[in-house]
Amino acid sequence: MPKLLLATSNPGKIREYRFLLDGLGYQITTLTEEGIVKTVIESGNNYEQNARLKALTYAKLSHFTALADDSGLEVDALNGEPGIKSARFAGESASDIDKVNLLLARLKDTPWEKRTAYFKCVIAIASPGGHVKFCHGECQGIIALEATGRNGFGYDPIFFFPEIGKTMAELSLAIKNQVSHRAQASHEARYMLQQLHG
Fold it and tell me: 3-state DSSP call for residue 74?
């Protein structure tokens, strides 16, 4: 069974991708499991560049097919911020709570109808030989007035789905993995990985 390297050290992403990519005929492995300690600086100007950088670097290092994503939260009232800087929005060592609190503070006087936002995800799948394919996913929501829910990670507690009536952090992993930006991109990624595996 060929190995598929998840090119991330984020435990929340690893948990979701193990679920989303299950049953494809790959042995899913991680940087930690492979003893890879190199950190890739996300120096790109967009999600595609960052995902490509991570996937290519780790595919060449490991000699396995590697899957990396770059994702972010784009808030309309903040002109698309935090965007590709979502992970570092409140500083390099900030916690998820710090990022959520900063975002809520920036939106404190913004009315409900102007709190629209998108989660975006770009997956890059790279071969050790340097071939890269991209998959895209997006979901729309509203930034809640306060954090709610204990599931998920990052901005999930304040990303509210009006049609479901819950934040992403209130959804079970099974439901989140039907509606999230990562789920949309992974649907496309499953097809690509099946083609590669043949």
Answer: strand
Summarised one tens digit per residue, pLDDT across range 23-72 is 999 999 999 999 999 999 889 999 999 999 999 999 999 999 999 999 99
113 burial via Cβ count (<10 Å: 0-12, 13-18, 19+): exposed
Distances (CA, A) of 30 to 33, 50, 135, 139: 5, 18, 20, 26
> Residues 6 or more apart from 41 whose CB is under 8 A from it?
none
70, 76, 109, 156: which is the annotated catalytic residue?
70
Using CA atoms, how far apart are residues 133 and 65, in angstroms rounded to an integer? 11
Range of the domain at 193: 3-197
Calpha distance 149→151 (Å, rounded): 6
Which amino acid type is present at position 152?
Answer: G
Q: Count structural domains, the chain.
A: 1
CA distances to 70, 80, 128, 132 from 61, rounded to whole Å, are: 19, 34, 8, 15
Is pTM beyond 0.70 here? yes
β-pairing, 3-6 with 27-30? parallel
Q: What are phi and psi of 54, to 5 degrees?
A: -70, -45
Cβ-contact 149, 168 below 8 angstroms: yes
Instruction: CATH number of the domain at 125, please.
Output: 3.90.950.10
- Residue carrying the six token digits 């934040």: 167
Look up 70 and say whether it is catalytic: yes
